[in-house]
Amino acid sequence: MLRALIAARAELAGLEESLSALPNPQVFIQSLALLEAQASSEIENIVTTTDELFRAETLAGREKLYVNTDFLEILRGV
């Protein structure tokens, strides 16, 4: 098990290094979370296409923009 943990840590370090080269790595990370949620939902027989999923997230993101407390803090600082 220790070997598996060491290997996983090395892989995560490689991923982190690759992500640092992206202009906005959060987009990639959020995409992974959405795809994982999609796969988990299929277990509960909730099926959607990847296209529908990303379109819904785009529309929801606009609404979240106004209720996200982090975003409100940024606006107060401007």
From TrEMBL:
InterPro entries registered for this protein in UniProt: Fic/DOC_N (IPR025758)
Domain of life: Bacteria
Domain (Fic/DOC N-terminal): residue spans on this chain: 2-65
Pfam family name, one: Fic_N
Protein name per Swiss-Prot or TrEMBL: Fic/DOC N-terminal domain-containing protein
The organism of origin for this protein: Rothia kristinae
